[in-house]
Amino acid sequence: MNKNILLMVDVVSNEKGVEKDLIFEALEAALASAGKEQYGDESDLRVAIDRETGDYETFQRWTVLEDDSEEFEYPERQIKLSYAVKQKEDAQPGDVLEHKVDSVDFGRIGAQKAKQVIVQKVREAERAQVVEAYQDRVGELITGQVKRLERGSVIVDLGGNAEAIILRDQLIPREPVRPGDRIRGYLYEVSPQARGPQLFLSRTSPQFLMELFKLEVPEIAQGLIELKGAARDPGLRAKIAVQAKDKRIDPVGACVGRRGARVQSVSNELAGERVDIVPWDENIAQFVINAMAPAEVETIIVDEESHSMTIGVSEEKLAQAIGRGGQNVRLASELTGWILNVMTSADAEAKKEEENQSVLQGFMEALDVDEEVATVLVQEGFTTLEEVAYVPTQELLKIEEFDEAIVEELRNRARDVLLTKAIAKAEQRAHAQPADDLLAVEGVDEDTAYQLAEVGIGDCTALADLATDELIELLPDFGEERASALIMAARAKAYA
What we know:
Layout: H1 3-16, H2 20-39, E1 44-49, E2 56-65, E3 78-80, H3 81-87, E4 96-101, H4 111-134, E5 141-150, E6 153-159, E7 162-166, E8 182-190, E9 199-202, H5 206-216, H6 218-221, E10 225-233, E11 237-244, H7 251-256, H8 261-269, E12 274-279, H9 284-291, E13 299-303, E14 308-313, H10 318-322, H11 327-336, E15 339-344, H12 345-367, H13 371-379, H14 385-390, H15 393-397, H16 404-431, H17 436-439, H18 446-454, H19 460-464, H20 468-474, H21 479-494
C-alpha cells in the first residue's frame, strides 16, 4: 500500500476543499509526465492509481493507424494496423493498444513537478467551482471586500476562493475605494476565463440602482410596485420609473420613504448620487412630462415617425429643463426611450406652425385643393397622404365641413397620387441598381441602398468619398448623425 499517495490526497483535498478524485487525476498526470523522461517525450503514457490502496500501474499506449496513413509520424505512440493485429487480432484503425510498463517511483518523480501539476488542477477545479456557484446569480447584488487596486480597477474578495473585478469604467467616478473596504456591485457577467477574475461587477449600471431599490423598498419585493426602468449619470444624478400595481399605493412616496430614508440610503450607496423617482404612465407623452421633472412642461409635440418629441418650456425654466451639460434631458431621454428636443414654448409653437404650414402646402399641391380644405385636414390631425387615403371613411365623415362626396373625392385623389409616386419610384429603382458592396455597408439596408442609388451614389466607394454635408444636401431626411455614420462605415469597408 502506498500510504504517501493516500496521505497527500487527503491533505490537499481537506486544505483546498477539492474532491479527492481530482487530486488522484492530478497525481496520475504527474506520474505520467515523469514517466516520459524514461520512455520518451513523444510516448503516450497512462497511470492508474488504486483509490483504496494507493498502488499504481503505468501503461504505454499506441493509436492504431492504417498502414498507408500519412499521419504515421510518431512510432512512440502510433502503430500500423499490420503490426497491431499481431497483438490483438480484432484491432481496427482508431483503437488504442496498451502495454504495461515499469512505473516511476513516486518518491522520485520530483516534488516540484508533482506540486505544479497538482496546483494547476486544483486551481482549475476552484475556478470551475466559482463559475458553477455564481453563474445562476447574474443580475444579483454581490458584496465583498476590496482586496487590491489594479490599473484603476478593483479586485473584490468574495470569500471561498472567489474574486470579482470592478473595471475602471464600472466604478462611480471620484468614489474613494481603499483595500479592506466593504463594497457592493451588480453581477452582470460570469466569464470562465483561464486566468484572472471571472466575475464582473458594476456600480454604474442602471440595474445596480434598481436592485438597490428592491433591497430598500419592501413593496417592490412584494410585487406591489414595479420598477419600469432607470437611467444614470453615475455619481451625479439618476432617474428611476416606478408604477404601483395597487392604486391605493403611492409608488413615489413608498420609494422615498419616511423623511426620505429609503431614497437617502440608496443615494449613500451611490456616493451621494441624486435620485429622481418618476411615476410611470402608459401615456408616453405624460411619462415624458413626468421624466422631465423638476422642469414644468408647457407644450409637447409627438413625432411617431422619428420617435422624437419636441418639448416646450417657459424661457426662465429652459436651463433647468436641459440641466447642467444637458443632464436632465439626457436622462429623461434614456429613461423613456424617446429622442427629446427641449426649447422654449414660443420656439416650440413656431416650429409646430412651420411644420403645419409645410403639411398644409403639401396637401394643397398633392390633392389640388384650396387652403380652406387643407387647413381643415391639418386641424383634424392629418399629416400624410397615406392617412387621407386609407383612414376609415367614417373618420373623415366625422369632420363637420366634409360630406360624403368630398370625402370620396379626397380619398381617390390621395390614392392616385400615392399610386403615381409608387410607379415612379419603381421605375427609378429599376434604373438605379445599387452595387453589392453598397448593400454590404453597415447600416445600409435595401431601402437605404436604393435611396442612395437614386441620387447617384451607387457603390461603396461613391459613398465613402462624400462629405457629411454633401450627403445631407442630397438626402436631407438622413440627418447629420445618420449621414456621418453611413459615410464612416463606407470608408471602413472601402479602404480596409
